Amino acid sequence: MSKSAEFTKLHVALGERSYDIVIGAGLDSAGLLIAQHLKRKRTFIITDKNVAETQLETFVKRFENAGIEIAQKVVLSPGEETKNFTVVSALVETLLHQGLERSDVIIALGGGVVGDITGFAAAIALRGIAFIQIPTTLLAQVDSSVGGKTGIDTPYGKNTIGAFHQPQLVLIDTNVLDTLPLRELQAGYAEIVKYGAIKDAKFFAWLEANGKQLLSGLEGEKHEFRIEAVIRSCQIKADVVVADEREEGERALLNFGHTFGHALESETGFSNALIHGEGVSIGMAMAARFSAELGFAPKADAERLIAHLKACGLPVHPSDKGPKALDPVRILAHMKHDKKVKDGRITLILLRGIGSAFITREVEEDRLLAFLRNELK
Amino acid sequence: MSKSAEFTKLHVALGERSYDIVIGAGLDSAGLLIAQHLKRKRTFIITDKNVAETQLETFVKRFENAGIEIAQKVVLSPGEETKNFTVVSALVETLLHQGLERSDVIIALGGGVVGDITGFAAAIALRGIAFIQIPTTLLAQVDSSVGGKTGIDTPYGKNTIGAFHQPQLVLIDTNVLDTLPLRELQAGYAEIVKYGAIKDAKFFAWLEANGKQLLSGLEGEKHEFRIEAVIRSCQIKADVVVADEREEGERALLNFGHTFGHALESETGFSNALIHGEGVSIGMAMAARFSAELGFAPKADAERLIAHLKACGLPVHPSDKGPKALDPVRILAHMKHDKKVKDGRITLILLRGIGSAFITREVEEDRLLAFLRNELK
Q1: Burial annotation A324-359 (CB, 10 A radius, 16+ → b, else e)
Q2: A93 vs chain B: nearest CA distance in angstroms?
Q3: pLDDT, mean over chain B
Q4: Closest chain A residue to B88 measured between Cα atoms?
Q5: Does the CA dihedral A218-A223-A226-A232 come out positive or negative?
Q6: What ipTM was reported for this prediction?
Q7: Lesser CB count within 10 Å: N end or C end of chain B?
Q8: Which residues make Cβ contacts (< 8 Å) with residue B186, sequence separation at least 6?
Q9: Burial class of residue B319 (count of CB atoms within 10 Å of its CB; 0-12, 13-18, 19+)
Q10: What percentage of chain B's residues is helix, strand, coil (to nearest 5)?
Q11: Highest-confidence range of A187-196, A260-269, B258-267, by mean pLDDT?
């Protein structure tokens, strides 16, 4: 980690796939930082309609000030439903039509959807070109923009098609969060809580003390806490990714809350009724309750996690958000379609306590189904 | 390289992406060789209609004898037009529907099209699973099955979407060539000649002596020559791939004849009028003539290459195959859409002589256009 007046720089050490994460409030030097990565001073920006309205012009100006030509701006529809084969093939063909070359770099300016689809397009265009992430949501800043997971959805699940394709640079300007709705901020905050819950009890205690101010505190205070939380989250994520880039082991810990959460998101059709971070929040609360019920974690730790999520305005129970009448058997079926299923067995990430999670394939389906029946009754 | 009574084994040393190429005539132990790579004894075979009629049952029996369950056989339409987004997305969704897991291995049983599309499906399904190549054409055996280039086509060119995704094993049974039409054999042979032309003058001389018997000689002789030529071709290809896996330098030599060839194939709509190996043959002859014209190679070397291609029944001039009235400007435009174009400059692979090729971006467009006008008049 290195700090300058304007930003903090973290390094993700992955050999020839290594890159920096640059974090600051108001990155006026974004153009210069990017220019260093361009072989010719020409790039393509992929964004969505919402970001185009609020952030695009600021960044285009920063790029142009650094002498970078924007060969094309591609504006996608916002929302998870954009992550499909039709959109990604049209995106790649648009880039090819504009004369994309192998040494070009494309830029994902947006939230998780824009980052996932742009990263995947970069992974497959001309058999792989470079891309830069400029995440514009808290969720993307602390999670999806780091680590190289890219992909699109199929009827068989989220990101069931994709690639591990690391970005060449991640540029995080926390000032972009100022225009983000509170609900989006809270959803991103769920992923921050996750890092504390699975890996870092001290960070979790820090969040308990500062989480609410981070979300909606006074001006100066709010920004300082956001930068600090983003730096610590990215550092934990980077450490995990370096240890296990392709999720053959430890990286699965980052899916804490996600197996339950994805199943709930599936049942709501990945709609606005339950956004990803909210699904993760409910999923973490469920995993915590299940961990306590199975005797892995002290009940008090599960309750502490749930209490903090609630205090920050996040849902903690399936009935708090999304569809009301959920069928436990359908939820179980969704969990069985998870990418981490192995020999037909569901992978669960459970807690031993705050700051300590583990991966297990040992939980019997009957036990899980009984838990789901109780949660959904 | 190691030899047993039944097969020769070459090793492609790419660190954690290393794999073997096993070459033999009648690989009855194919099932056992594959079983070693399966975590659960269950696999998926992707093939095309032609191969399904001639080869599929033999291999299915070999697998079943080794206790491998075939979860699904997917039979694609033969031909280059299968290499599109619609087919690859349907293929991946079929596999997911059958309960594909990350640790599964899928098998490409077929020619270049089956290998390219199956490899690409493996690269993107669940963010990357393993696959095994069992090439059933001479062209796939000596070229496309080795080296991890996978992909599909777009209106902007062949394989403009794809991934570098190495197979886990390449199994080459030269006996499958017995049912291959002579034209297909000759087309594959063009890629064999390419290895001699760019890298190995001794091998080229060996081909001059044995090429015709390899294609259509007496029974025993024919098989022996085929195995020898496949081994030497795969060895050269493996060496080049190990030196430059992602084609940042030397690997581009393997595209000798391909920049011209692809342009001609484009103009014939990648149809049966001009199959890939034929395009490469004409392309090599053109590159040889252009090399001599520019003074890079002795005229005698160009003539020697062209004479051998002709002697083996291969086309050596644009007018020998495909559409008659070709427009030089359109051919040039196709060449400018090549993946290897850099800063708008066309990459050409030219000869210094038999056994020695080089990469250049220095040839002026006007010079190339004048050459094309002369070739196509």
Answers
A1: eebebeebbebbebbbbbeeeebbbbbbebbbbbbb
A2: 7
A3: 94
A4: A85
A5: negative
A6: 0.92
A7: C
A8: B215, B277, B278, B312, B313, B314
A9: middle
A10: 50, 20, 30
A11: A187-196
What are the DSSP calls for B3-65, one per residue? E-SSEEEEEE--GGG-EEEEEESS-TTHHHHHHTT-SSSEEEEEEEHHHHHHTHHHHHHHHHH
pLDDT tens for residues A135-171?
Answer: 999 999 999 999 999 999 998 888 999 999 999 999 9
Active site residue B9: no
Nearest C-alpha neighbor of B230 from the set B148, B175, B302, B301: B175
pTM score of the predicted model: 0.93
| B347 secondary structure, DSSP code | P
Q: Taking CA atoms, what residue in B is nearest to A126?
A: B160
Dihedral-angle region of residue A166 (phi above 0 means left; psi in -120 to 50 means alpha; beta otherwise)? beta
Q: How many CA atoms lie within 13 A of A230 on its CB side?
A: 36
The H or E element that residue B242 is part of is helix B219-243
In Å, what is the CA distance from A91 to each residue of A94, A100, A290, A314, B337?
5, 12, 42, 35, 17
Confidence of residue A5 (pLDDT cuts 50, 70, 90): confident
Contact yes or no for B156 and A96 at CB 8 A: yes
Query: For the sheet containing A69-76, what is the strand order?
Result: A2-3, A7-12, A19-24, A169-173, A130-135, A105-110, A42-48, A69-76
Query: In the structure encoding, which two tokens stand for residue B181, read together?
Result: 């039409």
Report chain A residues whose CB lies below 8 A from the CB of B154.
Answer: 89, 92-93, 96
Q: For residue B95, what is the nearest residue in chain A, using CA coordinates?
A: A156
Helix pair angle (B201-216, B219-243), 10° resolution: 140
CA A76 to chain centre: 19
Percent of chain A with pLDDT over 70: 99
User: Which of B124, B154, B361 to probe by mutation at the A interface, max A CB count within 10 Å?
Assistant: B124
Q: Give yes or no for A111 touching B (CB within 8 A).
A: no
